[in-house]
Amino acid sequence: MKTLFSIILFVSTLGISLFQNQTIDKKASHVSFKISNLGLNTVKGTFQNMTGTFNFNPNNLENSNFDICIEATTINTGNNKRDEHLKSADFFNVEKYLEICFKSTSVIKHDNHYLTKGNLTILGVTKMVEIPFEFANNIFTGTFELERLDYGIGEDTGTFMVGSTAKITITSVVN
Which domain of life is it from (predicted)? Predict the structure, then answer.
């Protein structure tokens, strides 16, 4: 009887720990992007300081969810002048919109990976997006394409100076 009670207690404790939010490692997590520039170059950059709720359990996808934000002010392309322009009202308007946020509405298994659907908010504009992702060794890696003009990012630059589609990769390391 004592052994049975110990097993039930262990399984209950294990179940509780599996459904708790994982903690995001802010230093190791980031969002990177690639976008064409003048049709000849590719500009690469990152955003840092990811925060929010990360709750993923492959054995309980119905209760898995993400509510994550990244600081827009951390944009870094390796070019200070370009970064300051990207922070301006011409692009990310970081004085008014401090964060870029994603909140999931569903998480499902899709082929050999997962798919989360949810609301992405940039510059106060919210659109539904789908992010295919993999989760291994406590690292979430999701990649999708973003139409920047859908969010009003750099509307006055046209699509020759800055491409219309950015490739986004989210890397979230959790404990």
Answer: Bacteria
Q: Sheet holding 51-55: strands in order across?
A: 41-47, 30-37, 165-173, 139-147, 125-136, 113-122, 99-110, 65-71, 51-55
DSSP string, 98-124: -EEEEEEEEEEEETTEEEEEEEEEETT
Q: How many CB atoms lie within 10 A of CB 105?
A: 11
DSSP letters for 55-69: E--TT-GGG-EEEEE
Closest CA to 39 of 127, 159, 165: 159
Domain assignment of residue 100, yes or no: yes
| Rounded Cα–Cα distance for residues 99 and 163 (Å) | 22
Range of the domain at 105: 22-173
- Please tell me the pTM assigned to this model: 0.86
Per the domain annotation, does 56 fall within a domain? yes
The answer to whether position 46 is within a domain reads yes
Q: 77: domain CATH number?
A: 2.40.128.110
Is 163 inside a domain boundary?
Answer: yes
Please report, in angstroms and rounded to a whole number, the separation of the first and last CA atoms in the chain: 35
